[in-house]
């Protein structure tokens, strides 16, 4: 049976598909937890590695999880932390930083430490995430076939370790309070390796699979072929998660092809850099996501908006569009006030939550 809901360990059932913005360090810049909920955003993605460093595992453990720590009532997915750890490990030029045992890395002023598949699971369980993601070996976009094969092989080895450790930790957990366990498909732009990785992960057994690696090809287009291969070789009851995806039109295409969960830094990062997402419609009811040009980008601080009394969008009911003019937002960005980024972020998150509402009703 195809999944219809994302179930949380607190008993929530969130209709699919869903988009979770990146709250890397348990915060979306300039917003508090109530702001996020007010955009009708049902969940967030948090970063396992960064939170293990600051505030640290012991602090999160004291609060009995990330929800209590940040007073968050929605869902939370934690990534494995592997991408950040590998980036640090490879940045200092160390040889053999990534091995089958894990990733050896060194933070400034500290000794080298090993980050293992079990470490990743341990930290995520302390965070009390609704979806725990296994540690995987990221396939670089410029990887050779041999390098890509090595990342697939290591990803499978780590996936087995992660699942075994996860089962041990959740052996006595009430099934209704047990988080999802997600495997990650690597293989780069090699279709046969994507298929191999998908099949081997399915053989191990997970609650869902994620599109791992770099999703954008050298020509700048999205790697829909890999997404299709993963979908075609995954059981129908699996959750499919597009990690780091993405742009609104990419999400629409993937949802139509059976994908369920998405996260990305774009809406929040773009908001802070003067890029807002606006529907090409005069109201929320008239938004048509089946049109190829259903949205456009809006740059708020252009001179032509300095005296514009209209809202950024009439097809949005966010705090910005319901209360302020284009002129006022342009003013806030011109003077560099933090309120500009806050209102723009609220708007972009509401754009994405409206998009998911439309996709849920588009079936």
UniProtKB/TrEMBL annotation:
<dbReference type="InterPro" id="IPR036511">
    <property type="entry name" value="TGT-like_sf"/>
</dbReference>
<dbReference type="Pfam" id="PF01702">
    <property type="entry name" value="TGT"/>
</dbReference>
<dbReference type="InterPro" id="IPR050076">
    <property type="entry name" value="ArchSynthase1/Queuine_TRR"/>
</dbReference>
<protein>
    <recommendedName>
        <fullName>tRNA-guanine(15) transglycosylase-like domain-containing protein</fullName>
    </recommendedName>
</protein>
<keyword id="KW-0819">tRNA processing</keyword>
<dbReference type="GO" id="GO:0005737">
    <property type="term" value="C:cytoplasm"/>
</dbReference>
<dbReference type="InterPro" id="IPR002616">
    <property type="entry name" value="tRNA_ribo_trans-like"/>
</dbReference>
<dbReference type="GO" id="GO:0002099">
    <property type="term" value="P:tRNA wobble guanine modification"/>
</dbReference>
<feature type="domain" description="tRNA-guanine(15) transglycosylase-like">
    <location>
        <begin position="10"/>
        <end position="361"/>
    </location>
</feature>
